[in-house]
Batch of 2 targets.
Target 1
Amino acid sequence: MNLLKNHPILNVMKVFLIVVLSLLSIQNVNGRKHHKHHHGQIFEYSAISCCRTHTASLTDFGGVGDGVTSNTKAFQAAIGHLGQFGSYGGGSLLYVPPGKWLTGSFNLTSYFTLFLHQDAVLLATQDENEWAVIDPLPSYGRGRDADGGRYISLIFGTNLTDVVITGNNGTIDGQGAPWWDKFHKGELKYTRPYLLEIMYSTNIQISNLTFINSPSWNVHPIYSSNIIIQGITILAPVRSPNTDGINPDSCTNTRIEDCYIVSGDDCVAVKSGWDEYGIAFGMPTKQLVIKRLTCISPTSAVIALGSEMSGGIQDVRAEDIIAINSESGVRIKTGVGRGGFVKDIYVKGFTMKTMTWAFWMTGNYGSHPDDKWDPNAIPIIQNINYRDMVAENVTMAGRLEGIAGDPFTGICISNVTIEMSKFAKKLKWNCTNVEGISSDVTPQPCAALPVQGGKACDFPQDKLPIEDVKVQLCSYKANYM
Ligand SMILES: *[C@@H]1O[C@H](CO)[C@@H](O)[C@H](O)[C@H]1NC(C)=O
Ligand SMILES: *[C@@H]1O[C@H](CO)[C@@H](O)[C@H](O)[C@H]1NC(C)=O
Ligand SMILES: *[C@@H]1O[C@H](CO)[C@@H](O)[C@H](O)[C@H]1NC(C)=O
Ligand SMILES: *[C@@H]1O[C@H](CO)[C@@H](O)[C@H](O)[C@H]1NC(C)=O
Ligand SMILES: *[C@@H]1O[C@H](CO)[C@@H](O)[C@H](O)[C@H]1NC(C)=O
Ligand SMILES: *[C@@H]1O[C@H](CO)[C@@H](O)[C@H](O)[C@H]1NC(C)=O
Ligand SMILES: *[C@@H]1O[C@H](CO)[C@@H](O)[C@H](O)[C@H]1NC(C)=O
């Protein structure tokens, strides 16, 4: 992410490019409908890279925001057109005005910003035939819901660089109810679509948007690096199946901050492939920072590490997290056959209200892709650090289950106060096949975590490269409504 420094010659070049692009864009509107009323409303958006000089509105490409007309072709045409500009003048921006924009899947392009007005709603089509079926993810070997391929996600991108998906809190509505129904009835032919998936890409920003009612996972960056996810609201009924919030999967250098997630599955699920497919692919998720996340997940975890973690998970830093009415805080999910590792995990500053388990580690998660998994593929779980936490109304403080003959080691818990609920189990901690230490923890942890007075668990002092990336403020003047 080498941002160009302000150098006079560069400024001259920028002006030149802007002039050239303005001429190009004047040529390009030839033949397009010119709207009489140029509202000239100015919108601000933050950008991981350059501000875009070439812009267009979805309505320039025949988009109709009536909630009924399909805009699939308009999106594809608009992005196909804007994609031709490449990185010239900082790339291009597609503006989605107020309205309800029914659409099937469309693909993103590089050096590109998708910007949703705050009253813009993308409505995902419920017509299953409109969803292309693509290959399963190589690190999963098969679809998550069914054998074979999977429906492409609503917004999809692969092999891209410099992509921004943002808005003034515009909405992406997956209209997932029929998909949840088919899932429950076992009627799915292929794996349900996600709302946003970015593969094999770098320099990605996803910000200031609301995702609702996804058919399945919401935001899925995979095999990618340098990712900022910021100011996102994700809402799904707490009983909807597998509506995970944000799932960084085999990604490096990712920053998730200021997000609010209510979901029927994990709010954030950190992943890296499934059993023998994930082991063979061998791409970990590492250098992940999660800050200021608020999560409500009555049936799942605030932050899950796994269960698909066969490529490994390393160097995750989470701080300033709020959990309300959630099943567990940070949960490690793994099992024999997964292989891989979960190590160097650091969590501090965690407030929990109404939890089943404040701490949960599961070494017998099961859930294999097929019967070809390797019984000798034992996961390594080590150096897991939790500190500075308060929890209230908790049913059980800790349920820490390692694997027999493969203990989870280097667990550290310090400065944690857990207030048990009226209905709490008599046994407050249940630890098997785990080893570590504790300090200043109430109620007193299990004997597997002996007290080492005064020792605060580790949390790295340094910053990850993605934390130093500044997003700049850009503005866009909407000429079309
Ligand atoms: C989007 O990209 C995927 C993968 O490259 C491809 O299968 C699909 O056909 C593309 N969709 C469109 C509408 O071009
Ligand atoms: C995308 O990148 C991956 C990994 O580098 C590569 O295997 C694949 O062929 C690329 N796909 C396209 C469509 O370029
Ligand atoms: C964005 O919209 C959602 C859903 O309406 C709302 O809950 C959230 O508070 C909004 N966020 C901001 C920053 O306005
Ligand atoms: C995006 O959301 C952040 C909070 O996450 C806020 O500080 C910022 O002003 C918002 N930006 C825009 C352009 O709405
Ligand atoms: C203990 O944790 C609380 C937050 O729960 C924090 O405010 C306090 O500073 C921590 N104490 C120490 C000694 O780090
Ligand atoms: C405490 O947790 C129980 C579930 O265990 C819930 O029913 C109750 O409403 C919670 N009480 C408060 C004060 O949040
Ligand atoms: C404690 O955990 C072990 C291992 O999962 C389990 O077999 C046992 O039943 C648990 N004990 C209680 C009292 O829940």
Target 2
Amino acid sequence: MVINDFLAADMRKQMQADGYDLLDEFHAASKVGARFIGWDHTGYDFSSRSEAHDFKIANVKRRNGMAPLLLPEPSLVDARLDDLRTRRKSTRRFRRSSVCLRNLGTLLNHGYGFATDDRRSVPSGGGVYPLELYVIALNVTGLPTGTYHYLPHEHALERCGSDDSQPTLAQALDGAFDEGQAGFPAFHIVVTAAFIRNVYKYGLRGYRLCLLEAGHVVHAIILASLALDLGSLPNLNFYDASMDRFLDIDGVTESVLYMCSVGESE
Ligand SMILES: Cc1cc2nc3c(=O)[nH]c(=O)nc-3n(C[C@H](O)[C@H](O)[C@H](O)COP(=O)(O)O)c2cc1C
């Protein structure tokens, strides 16, 4: 038995001993099969689907009333895919230096913004776009330190009303960036999902879509960072409930999924 099989069998035994086989349950709930076509159970009427309806449920996070800060036009990122592929690696130490607002905006645009007037940079199941991007700005030229929500349609940021004090952030990050052990990223981009936007249309499979789409977003940010000579770290090292509190979201209708830390590499 190869070691991975052994570990999987061991883990499975433990899960069964706990009375759950969460892995199976979790994944089975997101499956679609021959006897289960049409996602009828969702209440979504595919026969009368309309782009207008899809658009209404898409990207519905309301602005919080704070005046949005328009971001500079994204820079043109000119890079060879093959070069990015060979240079890609996770940054383990960030230099203590700032990143300009235009570069931050470029990454947000690549991650979840619009590539043309009506097409986003990344794909989304059914074009629903259930994700939200937040920026925890630590060292961005032209942007006060704080937490912001990205508005893709306006290519703008709105300040969040969250408690964005450094101790609360350090708690949410489990001290991962304390005392400069990993250096000093200029900002974190946090990806959350407003699950209902997908679940409304795709039922429990919508949950799987949210996870997959977060991967598209962070990978686009990683590649664009490299093209701008910035380092990035895909990062799951946070406490979910603390991060949700930090972002002032409820953790149920919207919850944190993923994060990407960005800055100059040492
Ligand atoms: C979903 C995901 C979550 C990750 N979370 C962390 C993390 O919390 N902390 C960390 O140091 N690295 C994290 N990483 C980076 C991986 O450790 C890294 O990609 C792996 O060691 C391979 O190294 P490379 O990216 O330099 O090729 C994460 C990567 C992925 C894809």
